[in-house]
Amino acid sequence: MRKSRILYALPCLLLLLSINSCKTDDFDGPGLNDLYGEFDILEPMTLSRTNVNFANQESMFFGAAFSKIIDWKIAITGLETGSKKIISGKSSKIDAANSLWIGNTTVFPIFGAEDCAVMMTFLNEPDTLRDTLTIAAPKTNPGILMDNFEHGLNPNYVNWGIHGVNFYPDSSDHPAAEGDYYFRLNGTVNWDWLINKITIPPSGGATYFALPSNPAGLYFNCFIYGEKDKANTLLKFEFREDDNGDGTYTANSEDRYDYQLNVDWDGWRLLSLDYSQLATPSDGQFGGANGNKFHQPDKILMLDILLLSDPNLGEARSDLDYLIWTTDGPLNP
Amino acid sequence: MGNRIQYCLPLLLILWMVMPTQTIHGQGIADKVWFNGLGRAFFAQDRLKGAILSQDTTTNRSSNGGHMLLDLNVHVNPNPKLEISSLLRFRTEFGGFWGAGTTVQLRQLYLRGIVGKGIHYSIGDLYLKQSRFTLFNNQQEGTAHQASIFSPYSDIVDYENFYRDNNWRLQGMQTNFTVEFTRFIRAIDFDGFVARNRGAQWLGRPDELFAGGSVKLRQSKAFDLGFNAVNLFEIASTSNGSTSFHNPVGTVTADYRIAKDSMELAFFAEAGMSAMRLVGDSLAPDEMMGNFVEGGISLNLPKKALKFKLAYRAVSPGFRSAGAQTKRFEFDGSNTVFPRLSDAQILRPTTAFDILADDLRYNQALSQTLMTFDPKYNNATPYGDATPNRAGLQLSADYAPTSGKLAASVQLAYSQELQGQGTIELKHFLLGQASVDVNLHKWLDWKRKLTLTGGVRAEQTGRGGDSLEQVSLTSILADVGMSAEVVQNLEVIVGMKMFQAQGNEYRSQRNFYGELVDLPVYLVDETHGIFAAGLRYNFRDDIYLQLSGNWINVHDQVSTLPKYQIQRFLLVFNMNL
After folding, report:
1. Which residues, in sequence order, are CB contacts of B565 under 8 Å at separation 6+?
2. C-alpha–C-alpha distance, residues B407 and B492, integer Å
3. Of the candidates A264, A272, A194, which has an alpha carbon nearest to the alpha carbon of residue A236?
4. pLDDT, tens only, A210-229
5. Quick check: helix, strand or coil at residue B422?
């Protein structure tokens, strides 16, 4: 009796477990059609809006469908500014989930109110789809704007001033990153690394910049224009804090947070500095290393922007635009 | 120092060969210290021939190399219940300049014994095997029923890589004991082990352990019930990282036998589940779960010298068992003999000869993910019986009369995928295998041995669907051999191995996590032929000297490499003690 129970139990056990081993309706790995199938455009490119007002929080997206999963790229080019937004992905369908555009920029300057050309291309396929759209109003960026140099040089800025060195708003060489004007810094000093510096105080005669006390999520952003043949150009940003609250900066006993970079590229780039990650000078030769070491944005008295270069390498040149603080992560213009 | 070893090693080998084993035992400490081991001299000269020479001005036309080694295994038995064993290797490369290439290394060390009346334990180097779905070292590709002239190659591969039957060699500790009962249950066997598969590595990879155990309940002579469990896992705290791999597998086995005078009928079944997860890695895929089931029946007719076996097996696509799915041969490696060919120095693709002879391309540790395999050599069961995503039937028959005149076996298997790869269409696999040993000297009543061996393995993979989905791959491997004893202990030996593959497939390319990420097109139309002839002198059992010539022809019509030939002269002196 016991033996026959075992004989019955074994097939039952096998049957029970084989249920889980049944074949499935989906497949493993990438689809063969996506890897080797013929590419075909099943639904041509569509635009959810052809006229979009990003300043009103509007957005737009693209639509298309293909016969296989493919690497695609949509390039939107501002016909006046030359700004570019690149949206790319790998899929057989383009929709709001993978092509939403909120008016932000990939290649600067940032978009203005302008007509744009739209071009969709595919990896290893010759097909190109084209269309146009109009930006009625560009995206606005939340943040605390320090200056965009649209109204000339602020008379409260302190220019350290050396003969032959130019710090002035300009619009002559190339489009501004935002608006019409940018701030030009150039000059040659063949006896010292420091070419010039400008001190930017808080606007309206305030003692401190109107910034939150908590540095978490606080970013200083600005656009920097570079030229590769002036790769000797160095820029330095110095944020000075009034640790003891006496209304003045004392180099020997208060914090200065620095950031220096080499401007060795062509065109506009966005610099976004996480204020909480900035460090005080390591040597303290020019002060700023002996403060309380707490990042206190609401105690920033002034921002110094320095143009530097190896004195043996000739002229240094760079342009700045759209200096803005953001409180919830880096700027997404 | 190296120089001394170079000179002493041949002397030691000769001494060992002529000295009876009892003399070594009789050192006054008999029963407490004893020795065994292996001695080997190996020399190969390889020559490159064929149409490749017109397109290759950079590769050397020939190469010579070889080694001599002595593995001295010292066993110490302080008392009858304890043994300590260490295997020391003395090795020198032929042509090593001033002792360069001469090494002395500790190759194996273990301690084993018995506690009390029957608790066995081992610490150190362990040879471990469990179920075919939990811990099992599957046979490598490229063998149908190999001719004896090729046995030095496979002996070296197995010995150098610690392949002993289907065990994996791991380092750790193990214990086993049996509890016997007087009623209802005859006995329960317990076995447990823990081994270190990999030590912590620089830059984040933690210690990896392999632990497991089994319980076998022997209810009666007719019925057994077993439980197996293993787990390959990492200990995150042993590294700077926070990720850890876990691959537990558990199985249940049941065997039921009906034995009568003229036959033995047995039912067997095994079923189990697996899980695989990478804890703490946000990029890792979700936990993968899988299961398998196997059941069958075997019939043994001893009077007719016949055995039959029929089995059904289904292994789900998600079944992962590192202990049972790790492969011996590493298809991702490069060849030792003529690794690159042509003026473009293209990596020479792996051939049947490399699988047969290149012991450096074999793996000795368990692999977390499914290793690369080459579909032309084995597409039906690249990971043994535990190959995931397969379901099918196997039928085998063996005939081995006690006269010893003949032994033959046949195996047929049909299986199918459970889940398509890149498509919902499923591949099917048809495998046929047969082997025969004919001892002609017994048929002819000759005193001197004359044996013939032969084997064939044929595999066909197919998939329907549209032109993109269709797969058709056929491969045939044939082994033929002959051994004739012409004077006492001297044999003339010949052997041939032919491999042919043709068709199309898609290879499975997996990422770090073992996910299938690409299916590159795989086209094959090639023939490999290995012919060998030589002489073997048998000094004693397991002590022989073999001289042989090997002609390896490779014609790959898909590769950019033209037809080429490798000619090898081989000398092997082997001594197992």
Report:
1. B48, B49, B50, B551, B552, B553, B554
2. 22
3. A194
4. 999 999 999 999 999 999 99
5. coil
User: For B398, which DSSP code?
Assistant: E
Task: Please give the structure tokens belonging to residue B140.
Answer: 């490598």
Which residues of chain B have a CB within 8 Å of the CB of A28?
Answer: 317, 389, 419-422, 516
- DSSP assignment string, B361-384: GB--S--SSPPP--TTT-SS-TTG
Which of B256, B424, B517 shows the shortest C-beta gap to A27?
A: B424
Nearest-Cα distance to chain B for A20, in Å, is 7
Residues B523 and B558: beta-carbon distance below 8 Å: yes
Sequence-distant (≥ 6) Cβ neighbours of residue A202 within 8 angstroms: A208, A209, A210, A301, A302
Contact call for residues B577 and B37 (beta carbons, < 8 A): yes
Distance CA B442, CA B440 (A): 5
Indicate the pairing of strand B244-259 with strand B223-235.
antiparallel
DSSP label of A48: S
Q: Could you give the angle at the alpha carbon of A59 between the alpha carbons of A54 and A61, nearest 5°?
A: 140
Is the CB of A10 less than 8 angstroms away from the CB of B421? no
Angstrom distance (rounded) from CA A145 to CA A168: 19
pLDDT of the residue at A251: 85
Residue B39 pairs in a beta bridge with B70, B575
Q: Beta partners for A51?
A: A134
| Nearest by CB: B468 against A14, A23, A37 | A37
Enumerate the residues of chain B whose CB falls inside 8 A of the CB of residue A6.
223, 254, 256
First-to-last alpha carbon distance for chain B, in angstroms, is 26
- Residue numbers in A near B418 (CB within 8 A): 21-24
Provide the pLDDT for residue B484: 97
Measured in whole angstroms, the distance separating CA B504 from the mean position of its chain's CA atoms is: 27
Query: Quick check: A9 pLDDT over 70?
Result: no
Q: Chain A residue closest to B184 (CA)?
A: A2
Q: What confidence tens digit (pLDDT) does each residue in B57-112 have? A: 888 899 998 999 999 999 999 998 999 999 999 999 887 666 677 889 999 999 99
ipTM: 0.77
Q: How far apart are the first and last CA of chain A?
A: 81
Tell me: pLDDT of B1 over 50. Answer: no
In this prediction, residue A23 has a pLDDT band, given cuts at 50, 70 and 90, of low
φ/ψ (deg, to 5) at A277: -100, 0
Strands (E), B373-449: 390-399, 406-416, 420-421, 428-439
| Subunit contact A32:B423, Cβ cutoff 8 A | yes
Determine which helix (DSSP H) or strand (DSSP E) holds B12, and give its type and residue range: helix B2-18
How far, in whole angstroms, is CA B12 from its chain's centroid?
Answer: 31
CB contact under 8 A, A14 and B269: yes
| Chain A residue with minimum CA distance to B268 | A10
**SS3 of A2, please?**
helix
Non-local (6+) Cβ contacts of A160 within 8 A are A196, A197, A198, A199
Instruction: Name beta bridge partners: B108.
Output: B87
Contacts of A250 (CB under 8 A, 6+ apart): A244, A287
How many helices (DSSP H) and strands (DSSP E) are in chain A? 3, 18
Closest residue by Cα to residue B92 from B83, B104, B82: B104
Q: Inform me whether the pLDDT recorded for A22 exceeds 60.
A: no
Tell the burial category of B9 from Cβ atoms under 10 Å away from its Cβ (0-12, 13-18, 19+): buried
If residue B253 lies in a helix (H) or strand (E), which one and from where to where? Answer: strand B244-259
Q: Which residues contact A229 (CB under 8 A, 6 or more apart)?
A: none
pTM of this structure: 0.75
CA–CA dist B501, A211 (Å, integer): 73
Counting beta carbons within 10 angstroms of the beta carbon of residue A249, is it exposed (0 to 12), middle (13 to 18) or buried (19 or more)? buried
